[in-house]
Amino acid sequence: MSSSEVRAEDPVVVDRHLCKACGICIAFCPKSVLGADGDGIAIVERPDECIRCRMCEFRCPDFAIVVRSEEDE
Amino acid sequence: MNTHLRKYFRQEHLPHIWCPGCGNGIVTAAILRALDRLGWEKDRTVFVSGIGCSSRAPGYLDFNTLHTTHGRALVFATGVKVAHPNLNVVVITGDGDASAIGGNHLIHAARRNIDITTICFNNSIYGMTGGQYSPLSPTDSVASTAPFGNTDRSFDLCRLVEAAGASYVARGTTYHVTPLTKLIERGFEKRGFSFVEAITACPVYFGRRNKMRTPVEMLEWQKDAAVPITRAQKMDPEELAGKFVIGTFVDIDMPEYTESYERLLREHASDRGGG
Hints:
The complex is a heterodimer of chains A (about 70) and B (about 280).
Chain A: E1 12-14, H1 24-28, E2 34-36, E3 42-44, H2 55-59, E4 65-67
Antiparallel strand pairs in A: 1-4, 2-3
Chain B: H1 3-6, H2 24-38, E1 45-49, E2 64-67, H3 73-83, E3 88-94, H4 95-101, H5 103-112, E4 117-122, H6 157-164, E5 168-173, H7 177-189, E6 194-199, H8 203-207, H9 215-225, E7 226-228, H10 229-232, E8 244-251, H11 257-267
Parallel strand pairs in B: 1-2, 1-3, 3-4, 4-6, 5-6, 7-8
Antiparallel strand pairs in B: 5-8
Helix pairs in contact in B: 2-7, 4-5, 5-6
């Protein structure tokens, strides 16, 4: 599986169709959960570290990120 | 996309036109979260905008929307509100649209205290037309029309709207997105003219020319330059140079325009149609 694929268990879901690779979510995640693929698109690198603060979702300018609540899983 | 917010978008128009890292989408999502919390209905809500990058926002929103002429969003919004006082009317405008082309309309909407919430996306520049300086471009900042730095003093638009008589005035940033959402929500709740200035990033036409080469650097600037009002009150003007104050400046109750107007009509109902 490539690292850019969405895994069912990931707490953060990035819509590759909407992401414009600005890097805001990656830079400001307090737990360094997110990284970038070769195109700069955000990918979930360390899902276990996510504290679901949702700042990546709130600061995403492209409506591309959802942090799933634990009930969703 | 958040499933809560999905219903508010015209999905077929996404991805939006804004540049990578442009903060306009952050403010737009904050607006939607605020109205979602209040349970505003799509059919009872009208978004009105003028011209500029930020004024493209209503095009993506599945509400009643009006994309009008430059600086005149508040004029159209006033017409909507007077005709249908029970509708929630929101104006989305930019710093140039609100303070230059539409500056007089802003003053008089605030003076009347008409129940419209105006969200001013302040990206410090005319982004859509190539980065000319606006009345809100900071002094000394570089713009396409100020290659050696802007000699103008910049407006404190919140102070202008406060002086003109608005019921609610606040400023937030896209970095401080959670407080920004709360300020917008309070503005929506307020009966009267509400004005929220949202400091947002134009990485392409403002940031790159002003030593902030990435969207991330622009958010770092918002984080570092913003001073909460409670702290600012204890600071000297010299300490506040190069910074801006965030928080709530005005939150008071005053007579609202459409209510005063309807009362006038009721009081004189017997005078009308009498021949």
